[in-house]
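Q: How would the structure tokens look for this protein?
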Amino acid sequence: MAISSQSFSPSFILTRHDSTRPTRLPSRLTFTHFRKTQSPQFTASSRLNSSKSSDAGGSISPDNGDVTYELHHDLSPQRRRRGSPVFVTLPVKSVGREGKIWRPKAMMLSLKALAAAGVEGVVVEIWWGVVERNEPRVYDWRGYRELVMMACMCGLKVRAVLAFHQYGSDGDDLNGIPLPLWVLDEIQKDPDLAFSDRFGRRNTEYISLGCDILPVLRGRSPIQAYADFMRDFRDTFRPFLGTIITGVQIGMGPGGELRYPSLSLQKLNLAWSRELGEFQCYDKYMLASLNASARNIGKREWGNGGPSGAGSLIQNPERTEFFRNEGGSWNMPYGKFFLEWYSDMLLLHGERICREAETIFRGTEVHISAKLAAIHWHYVTQSHPSEVTAGYYNTFNRDGYLPILRMFSKYGFSMCCSCFEMQDIVMKKINPDCSPEGFLRQLLLDARLCDISLEGQNFSTNLDDDGFTQVLKMSKYYSDGIERRPFSFNFVRMDKNMFEPRNWDRFARFVRRMSDGNMFRARLNSVGNLRLKTTVAAQVGLLYQLYQYS
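A: Here is the predicted structure in token form.
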């Protein structure tokens, strides 16, 4: 049944009872259709067990009798005329390799705290390597379905990130999430399914886009495998799409970003601020494409590999033959040919996925988006080496992001990008060649030109008041004007530090400032000044401040 978008108000009734019984989630969603004079309602009810002492995971006061309260979430278009909604990205392993929610009681308490602070919703990364782990076309969504229901029970919206990449340094990382095991088996049989640099170093973060449309995955191409995954996600979560799940971000490369895995480090590190990156074009599929392109223009010698003289990973670009400002081969005929081919391959990969996603999610009323990498550490140089090795042909005399954003606009995609909290005055002390603000201004201007919605994100997880203020500044740079443009912010990510009293106060103030006074309010109907407190430091390190709501 189609649900009108005029008004959508879930009511969640939670009752405290015997703590020895397991927590149960609603097994069924009930949609009730009303006459035109009434507002469509969505109702879900559940009984949530809360322990009798905080030592056991949490408590709800008062201690005597059942505590019943309702969370009302109005999803009507008129609900938010001003301000920008804030979402919070959940921990990477909210659903572990075995498909189960990690610490469900702590997760529920965390979600309730986020709702009370006025957060619009949560970002949930749904990993290919978890859902389709063992066999192709065998999907296990159970943990993620339960997680979406938990968010729903707390009155939170959900943004789903379909993550087709590996998380962690390698497949043996116990804290990581590898690609599906059957995909790794295929890579072992054919190592060229993985990206490779000029030194022959393989990177299994993401399947090489050189074989996008080749049947290398047990009869399917990677694009077909991604499309099948998206289609099964749509069919599984259809009752939630457009109402609870309001956004779906499609992973397009390492880190979920449309880029090559050119950088050696995955974790945030100061080395990133000077890393040139390595061109990822040495697997046989990428080399075949490069060779064909070179033959088409009668330059066979240009098709044997990437540029020589590109330097080492961490080196001054002025000391390299390819990237130096004056006389660098990046600005000569061969360099232009190679960088155009390299960036066009990335653009083609993005378009293939955009086309599939737009077709699959058409009519679901979810907003689809994709993410670009915030690579800014050589932004003030002429050649922008760390950007071009990642596939962004963006130099002092060429806008490398505009073609990508035009593609996003063509297929109705929003764009996500990070580093909204970074300030030039701080970062230039580390690396004089960087400019996160300059990079972001270029991207935001291109987004305005292409008239696409924007999702901002933080790069660093430790934000102080200056960082939050910078986010507000850069968000207004994009959204302010005669015609207000849609902007939202994804805070990355929920962890134990977030709930430390000082950090939690700072974050809650930021949410209020972003929301401009129109934030979601949880009404605790029957309890007056109910204090919600939980201590789960031994398990997830979460400490909640006491909050009172009238």
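The CA atoms of residues 262 and 277 lie 5 Å apart.

The first helix runs from residue 104 to 116.

Upvote if useful.
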